[in-house]
């Protein structure tokens, strides 16, 4: 069986959406994670977790049975409402999945869908990274509604955009094989542990492929151009081959969906356990170089890079002003601008 291709979640220095990976809460970024991909996890007391899981499973089972008894027309409205709510959250991948359910119901029960739905379906499909569905849906809308359709001009513009987007090829990431194994997950160093990093527990990981580097702006910008999404803000630090920042979990999910659609391969985000297993690489210390943060060990905020002697060690601290001012730190005066030229 072929191994799964996995893309690491993007570097994010701001708070992210509350549903990142398997988490329901965000956590503070630690110093050694400044230039690393990272994931989140919200571990609860074992007994509470078991009780919660039982209630969730029974609740889901109940509503699944109840929903199955609803007429297909009402199920369509239900999925449409959920899609609209997800669109408000900018979760276009989730909305696209709900609209796919509607299309499935239409085919199964020979339902008649409104022309406006086809146009909206095409719009959401483009945002979700599915260009093939976008082209199919918008062409079907134009054929069905004709020139008198409510969204005729908008549909023509969407068709042109989708055709142009289809010509934008993604930059595929360089992948490395992560061998299967077992590791102790959590705060194994016992130093400055957060509540969601304990208890430490053993996890078994199957072999998988993971991108060697973080997704960069140059890769992500192709996605936003192809799908018409807003470009991620680089905070003035620069784009190019720097890791993309200021993207949500929804953005990341849409990116890998687009990458998969364009390449015909299956890419996804790593689980929290997969990321930690790969990032640790067998280490048990707080940082990859040991348990002390030290000086000039990493290019990140609070890592002692101010005053360092290497060019890239100064880029982080010296490219930003001191808090509450527009001036750089005294040690960096005249340095930041030269470093980033």
As a percent range, the share of helical residues equals 40-55%
- Rg calculated over all Cα atoms: 23 Å
Spans of at least 5 consecutive residues whose pLDDT stays below 50 are 8-65, 307-317, 320-325, 334-341
User: What pattern of helices and strands is seen along the backbone?
Assistant: EHHHHHHEEEEHHEHHH
Distance between the termini: 48 Å
The SS-based structural class is alpha/beta
Largest β-sheet summary: 4 strands, mixed
Could you please describe the fold and organization of this structure?
The chain is an alpha/beta fold and 341 residues long. It has helices spanning 46-68, 72-88, 92-109, 115-127, 131-145, 152-165, 217-227, 249-263, 272-280, 311-318, 336-339; strands at 5-6, 175-178, 181-185, 201-205, 208-211, 267-268. The chain is elongated and about 70 Å long. Mean pLDDT is 74; it is low at 8-65, 307-317, 320-325 and 334-341.
Features:
about 350 residues; alpha/beta; Serine Threonine Protein Phosphatase 5, Tetratricopeptide repeat; 3 domains; four-stranded mixed beta sheet; two-stranded antiparallel ribbon; 11 helices; about 5% strand; disordered C terminus
Summarize the structure.
The protein is built from 11 helices and 6 strands. It is of the alpha/beta class and 341 residues long. A 4-stranded mixed beta sheet has the order 2-5-1-6.
Topology:
Layout: E1 5-6, H1 46-68, H2 72-88, H3 92-109, H4 115-127, H5 131-145, H6 152-165, E2 175-178, E3 181-185, E4 201-205, E5 208-211, H7 217-227, H8 249-263, E6 267-268, H9 272-280, H10 311-318, H11 336-339
Helix pairs in contact: 2-3, 3-4, 4-5, 5-6
């Amino acid at each position: 069986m072929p191994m799964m291709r996995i893309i690491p979640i993007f570097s994010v220095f701001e708070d992210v959406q509350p549903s990142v990976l398997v988490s329901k809460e965000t956590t503070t970024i630690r110093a050694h994670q400044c230039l690393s991909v990272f994931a989140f996890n919200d571990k609860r007391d074992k007994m509470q977790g078991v009780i919660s899981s039982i209630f969730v499973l029974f609740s889901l089972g109940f509503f699944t049975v109840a929903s199955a008894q609803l007429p297909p027309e009402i199920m369509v409205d239900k999925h449409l409402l959920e899609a609209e709510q997800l669109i408000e959250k900018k979760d276009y991948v989730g909305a696209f999945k709900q609209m796919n359910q509607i299309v499935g119901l239409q085919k199964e029960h020979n339902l008649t869908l409104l022309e406006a739905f086809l146009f909206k379906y095409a719009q959401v499909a483009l945002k979700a990274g599915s260009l093939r569905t976008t082209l199919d849906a918008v062409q079907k809308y134009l054929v069905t509604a004709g020139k008198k359709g409510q969204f005729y001009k908008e549909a023509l513009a969407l068709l042109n955009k989708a055709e142009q987007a289809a010509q934008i090829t993604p930059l595929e990431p360089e992948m490395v094989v992560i061998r299967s194994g077992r590791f102790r997950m959590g705060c194994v160093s016992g130093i400055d542990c957060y509540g969601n990093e304990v208890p430490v527990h053993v996890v078994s990981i199957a072999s998988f492929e993971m991108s060697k580097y973080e997704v960069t702006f140059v890769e992500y910008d192709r996605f936003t151009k192809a799908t018409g999404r807003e470009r991620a803000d680089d905070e003035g630090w620069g784009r190019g081959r720097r890791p993309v920042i200021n993207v949500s979990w929804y953005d990341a999910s849409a990116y890998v969906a687009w990458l998969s659609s364009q390449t015909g391969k299956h890419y996804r985000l790593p689980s929290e356990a997969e990321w930690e297993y790969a990032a640790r690489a067998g280490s048990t210390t707080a940082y990859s170089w040991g348990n002390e943060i030290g000086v000039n060990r990493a290019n990140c905020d609070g890592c002692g890079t101010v005053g360092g002697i290497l060019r890239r060690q100064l880029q982080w601290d010296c490219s930003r002003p001191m808090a509450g001012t527009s001036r750089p730190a005294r040690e960096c005066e005249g340095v930041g601008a030269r470093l980033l030229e």
